[in-house]
């Protein structure tokens, strides 16, 4: 696990501090950045998210899908948890805590925004970091690749209907065209570009060069883009956070419970199905973690840089690594 991934929470905290500082110093002089948009998709954020997502998508080898029938129980479990359980349990926990239990501490408008961010986060299962979690728990690498590849294809079909359905349930109106544009810009285009690049570069330069040279040079681009996006986000969110610092803790509660809930329910169903440890573990990990880059981008597109929904997705990044590392330790302790 690289230093950046290992200390992601620290980088997020530093990005929060830096962003808030820039927001306080620059003030209204950076407000024009939030207005640079097409169909409500913010252009600076679109560029940065593209720089984040493309390095992930270029690693996906869709030829691995020919092995999809192998470990069919594990694949079936992953699909059921990711698309029939996870989005709805996230919406439930977010509603239960942010709208009900914490209602005395949050005004209704903020609560609805935070719930929207949680819903977007829950509808986007992990794409890239699951390779790290699988590796750290000695998961089956080929199985992990198959489930991630299949998950990305299903994401193209189900992400919009699920987000639209669940946001509608919370009475939040969303522009349907913006949601479609977001999926095209942040998933379809980088996924297509990644697939074409993968095939072309491996054929021309070889797999060893692709892994050791190309991906190594691409990785810092993704890191810089992620941190820059967070700094930009918090430059606009700074006053909200300074006024309501307790909100971050309140948002983290349902997100944390959701992560452990999805891991445990997947893990114990996998044990019941008699899945091998190296299949059960990545199945549990992909559902527990999130495609937070996509979630941040979509939340910004739908609700704006200074929205509570965007803040909620960033809280997801803040807690992701510590929680997932605790689950890695647990999975290794429970090795069977």
TrEMBL record:
GO terms for cellular component: plasma membrane. Its main location: membrane. It is found in: Cell membrane. InterPro entries: Arsenical-R_Acr3 (IPR004706), BilAc:Na_symport/Acr3 (IPR002657), Na+/solute_symporter_sf (IPR038770). It is a multi-pass membrane protein. Pfam families: SBF. GO terms for molecular function: antimonite transmembrane transporter activity; antiporter activity; arsenite transmembrane transporter activity. The chain crosses the membrane at residues 7-26, 41-62, 74-98, 114-136, 148-167, 179-197, 218-236, 248-270, 282-305, 311-331. Keywords: Cell membrane, Membrane, Transmembrane, Transmembrane helix, Transport. Belongs to the arsenical resistance-3 (ACR3) (TC 2.A.59) family. This is Arsenite transporter, ACR3 family. It comes from Psychroflexus sediminis.
């Amino acid at each position: 696990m690289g230093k950046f991934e290992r200390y992601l929470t620290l980088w997020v905290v530093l990005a929060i501090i830096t962003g808030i500082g820039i927001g306080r110093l620059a003030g209204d002089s950076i407000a024009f950045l939030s207005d640079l948009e097409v169909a409500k998709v913010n252009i600076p954020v679109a560029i940065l998210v593209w720089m984040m997502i493309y390095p992930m998508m270029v690693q996906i080898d869709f030829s691995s899908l020919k092995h999809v029938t192998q470990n069919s129980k594990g694949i079936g479990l992953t699909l059921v948890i990711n698309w029939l359980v996870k989005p709805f349990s996230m919406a439930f926990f977010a509603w239960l805590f942010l709208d009900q239990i914490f209602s005395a501490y949050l005004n209704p408008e903020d609560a609805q925004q935070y719930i929207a961010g949680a819903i977007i986060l829950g509808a986007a299962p992990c794409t890239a970091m699951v390779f790290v979690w699988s590796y750290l728990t000695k998961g089956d690498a080929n199985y992990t690749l198959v489930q991630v590849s299949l998950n990305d294809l299903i994401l193209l079909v189900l992400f919009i209907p699920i987000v639209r359905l669940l946001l509608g349930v919370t009475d939040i109106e969303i522009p349907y065209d913006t949601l479609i544009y977001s999926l095209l810009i942040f998933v379809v285009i980088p996924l297509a570009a990644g697939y074409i690049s993968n095939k072309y570069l491996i054929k021309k330069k070889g797999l060893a060069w692709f892994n050791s040279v190309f991906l190594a040079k691409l990785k810092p681009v993704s890191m810089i883009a992620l941190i820059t996006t967070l700094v930009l986000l918090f430059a606009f969110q700074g006053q909200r956070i300074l006024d309501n610092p307790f909100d971050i803790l309140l948002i983290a509660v349902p997100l944390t419970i959701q992560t452990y809930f999805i891991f445990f329910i997947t893990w114990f169903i996998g044990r019941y199905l008699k899945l091998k440890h190296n299949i059960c573990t990545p199945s549990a990990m992909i559902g527990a973690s999130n495609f937070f880059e996509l979630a941040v981008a979509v939340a910004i597109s739908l609700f704006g840089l200074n929205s509570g929904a965007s803040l909620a997705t960033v809280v997801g990044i803040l807690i992701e690594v510590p929680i997932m590392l605790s689950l890695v330790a647990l999975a290794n302790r429970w090795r069977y």
